[in-house]
Amino acid sequence: MALPAYEKLELLIDGEFRQGSTGITEPVINPATGEKLGDLPHASAADLDRAIESSAEGFKIWRSMTAYQRQDIMEKAARILEDNLETHAINLTREMGKPLAESRIEIGFVINAFRWYGEEGKRAYGRIVPSRVPGMRQMVFKEPVGPSCAFVAWNFPGVNVVRKVAGALGAGCSMLIKASEETPGTCISIARALQEAGLPAGVLNCVFGVPAEVSERVLGSWIPRKVSFTGSVPVGKHLAKLSADTLKKCTMELGGHSPFIVFDDYDIDNAAATAAMGKFRNAGQVCVSPTRFYIQDNVYDEFTEKFAEKASQLKVGNGLDEGVEMGPLIEGRRVAWMNKLMDDARSHGAEVLTGGEALEPEGNFYAPTVLKNVPEESLMMNEEPFGPVAPCNSFSSFDEVVERTNRLPVALSGYAFTSSGSKAAKLAEEIHAGTFAINSLAVSSPETPFGGVNESGYGSEGGIEGLEAFQRVKFVSETGL
C-alpha cells in the first residue's frame, strides 16, 4: 500500500499551527512496526497560557454567531474530512494500530458527529414559564457554558476528540483540547479541517505536553468553565479534584468492566460470534469492550468452545495489511499488563482455551485469548483488562448473575443475550450501567447519550445530553414592560 504522508505534528494556538516555544518534542511511534511517525511538539507554560487566553477570545466570537452560521462551518469541516476519509483512516491506523476497516468506521463517526451536533445546535430550546404574577414574563434560556477544555485517551483518536469538540462547538463554546501524545495526528487533522472550514481563531486550540503539567496549568485557570475527560478512573478523580478549585462543570467518561451475559434461551452460535466481534475489536482496547463473560451453566461449555474457536481464527497483524482482523496493543506496557493478568489467572486455576501469550517477533501483539473458570477474586475479574483477554464463568440463575454483575463499583456498559422479553425488561432495570445493550453491541452513536455511572463517571456525551453538557441555564423574569 502506498501510504500518504503522516499528519504534520503541530500545536494549534489562536488559529495558528506552530511548534512549541521551547523546542521540546517527543516521538510518535507506530505500535505495529516501531517506526517513528514524527516528533510531537510540547506546549510550554507560556504556550498554554496563550491558548487559554485565546479560547476566551474565541468564545466571544463563536457564541455571538448564530447557530446556523456555526452549523455551516461544522458541515464544511465534515465534507473536508469526508473528501479525505481514506487518508485520515490510514494515518489513524498508523498511530493507533487498529485494522483499517475499523479506522474507516471511526472517521465516519467523526464526520457524522459534526453533522449531528451542527444541526442539534439549532435546537437549544428554552421555554416560557407561566407566571403567578400578572404582567410578568418568565423565560428560561440555555446558553453556552463558556470556554471549555478536554483531555482524551489514545484508544479512539477520532471519536474521543470529536465527542468533545463537536459537542462544544454545537453549543456555542470554544474548546481547548489535549489529545493523547501517543495518537495526536488524528486530532490535528480534525483541527485542520475545522480551520479550513472557516472556524475563527481561538475557537479551537490543540495542545500537547506532559499530561500532568498540562492539566494542572489549564485547570488551574478560571477561564475554562467546563472540562470533559475520557480516561481512567484514577486520572478522572484527580482532574475532578483539580477542577473543584474553580468549580468547573465536569463530564467524566471513565473506565468500566463490562459484563457479557448469555442465557440458555439465546442462539449460542450468534452469541459466540458477537462475543468475538466485540471483545477483540481494537484489540480489546475499548472502554465498553465486553470484559466479564457470564454464561448460563447448561450452555457454558458449548459457548466457550465456540468462542475460543472463533478467537483462534482471527488474523492478527499490522492493521494496514490485507485481511487483518486485530492489530497490536498501543505500547509495550499493555503487553506487560496482559502477562500480569494471565499469570494471576493461571495461579487461580483458570483454564486457557486459546491464546494467553504475546506474539513475536516485532510490535506489541498479543494473541486473542479466551479463558474458562476464572474465579471472581482473580485480578482480571476486578481490574479492567483493556486488552484481548476474555475471562468466562458460568451462572445458574437470573438473580445470581445480576448480583455478580453489579458487585463492582464501575458501571459503564453491559450486554445481555436472551430471547425472553421479560428477562430483557428486568435486566434493563436491574443492571448498573450507563449504557446497556440487549442482543447486540450497539451502545454508541452521535445521537445517543454515552457515559457511565458510579465510578465510571458522570455526565453524558452524545445526543441532546452531550449538547446540554456544554450549556448552562439562565432564568430571566420581566415585568412592567
What does this structure look like?
The protein is an alpha/beta fold and 481 residues long. The protein has 14 helices and 22 strands. It has helices at residues 45-64, 67-83, 85-96, 100-120, 159-171, 185-196, 211-219, 233-244, 268-279, 300-312, 332-347, 398-405, 421-430, 463-468; strands at residues 11-13, 16-18, 25-29, 36-41, 127-129, 136-144, 148-151, 175-178, 204-206, 226-230, 249-253, 258-262, 290-296, 351-354, 369-372, 389-395, 410-411, 413-417, 435-438, 453-454, 457-458, 471-479. Strands 14-15-16-13-12-18-19 form a 7-stranded mixed beta sheet, sandwiched between helices. The protein has a 6-stranded mixed beta sheet with strand order 9-8-7-10-11-21, sandwiched between helices. The model has no long low-confidence stretch (mean pLDDT 97).
